[in-house]
Amino acid sequence: MRAGRVSASMSQRHAFPRRTPVTFVITLLSVATILAGCGFTDTTGSPPEALSAEDDRPEDDRVDGDRADDDPRLGGHEVVWQVHPPLGLVPVTVAQTAVPTVTVYGDGLVLMADGVDHSATGHPVELRSARLGGAALRALLERADASDVFARPAPDFGHLAVTDLGETVLVFRTSHGEVVHRSVYGLGVERYAGEDLSPEQRELRIEFQELIAEARADVGETTRYEPPRVEVNDLSGRGQDLSGGRRWPGPPFSELFRGTDDCAVVHGDVARTVFAAALDNPGIRWTAEGENRELVVRALVPGQQPCQ
After folding, report:
1. Sheet holding 229-234, edge to edge
2. Tell me: the pLDDT tens digits for 274-289?
3. Is the distance from CB of 33 to CB of 291 less than 8 angstroms?
4. According to the model, what pLDDT value does residue 24 have?
5. How many beta carbons lie within 10 A of that of residue 237, not counting itself?
6. How far is Cα 293 from Cα 285, in angstroms, rounded to an integer?
7. The pLDDT of residue 116
8. The 3-state secondary structure of the chain, one letter per residue
9. Cα–Cα distance for residue pair 244/111, rounded to 1 Å
10. Closest by alpha carbon to 277, among 287, 263, 262?
């Protein structure tokens, strides 16, 4: 849809200044009505961003996994497991700051959203990194391979007669190298479904939830992840007073957005500077060279296609 792109120098190492054990809770329900006056985006049924082969981790920051001849997924840098949160009908700022709640790579690297309590302010979601050992990663992949969620060609999770809840999406790379998507609408509100769901559909939903929980069970100590790529979306309203913003620390607006582009990608040290400033900014208003804009910033995980 748009492909504004800005290159910046790539740092050769992430900085992880603190190590903290964190309990991660995936919010299964999205807020359908948040702050009147914001633009709303209906993301119900929208597929997650496509995965690319791009590996944007610095060479000396990659983690070597336990490669196994019988499972080519182990030891590689491709995404093998990813969970996308449900969004539904949400403010556009929520949709454009959302990140995958959990991403697992074949080398054991795990990136997790540091909480997914999105707000309508457009505040970025931070990511934390960890590592799954070879045995834990192998066990996760084997459980998923054997589950009815992925072993069946087209599992029926049923439908709920409730609107605007959004779909929780699991992306999984099978032992054959195929990337498979499974999505469940309204996950976690089955008690309100009544007779809408059959016993088998309820069991499938339970298994879906258990897979998500098990993927996080073996993740222990984590470190803060400083993204080497960030996406910047321009939400500036026409005719609106945008004064009072923070000083923009990234490339000039004229370089970020060209023509009709309203999305850009910033790389390297500049990306980390922009992300840190966005975390510190209580709003989304920015000013540079006498121009004011409303910009939201999102961390991109390795392999994630930007500006979808």
Report:
1. 246-247, 285-288, 291-299, 229-234, 263-267
2. 999 999 999 999 999 8
3. no
4. 32
5. 10
6. 6
7. 53
8. CCCCCCCCCCCCCCCCCCEEECCCCCCCCCCCCCCCCCCEEECCCCCCCCECCCCCCCHHHCCCCCCECCECCCCCCCEEEEEECCCCEEEHHHHCCCCCCEEEECCCEEEEECCCCCCCCCCCCCEEEEECCHHHHHHHHHHHHHCHHHHCCCCCCCCCCCCCCCEEEEEEECCCCCEEEEEEECCCCHHHCHHHCCHHHHHHHHHHHHHHHHHHHCCCEEEEECCCEEEEEECCCCCCCCCCCEECCCCCHHHHCCCCCCEEEEEHHHHHHHHHHHHHCCCCEEEECCEEEEEEEEECCCCECCCC
9. 34
10. 287
161-183 pLDDT, tens digit each: 888 889 999 999 998 889 999 99
pLDDT of residue 203: 94
> Which residues 6+ apart lie within 8 Å of 248 measured at CB?
277, 286, 287, 288, 293, 295
Extract the tokens encoding 291: 């121009």
Q: Which amino acid does the sequence have at 141?
A: L
Instruction: Please check the confidence at residue 89 and state whether its pLDDT lies above 70.
Output: yes
Model's pTM, two decimal places? 0.79
CA distance 115 to 97: 13
**Separation of alpha carbons 226 and 223, rounded Å:** 9
Kindly report the length of the chain. Answer: 308
- Tokens 């998500």 — which residue? 212
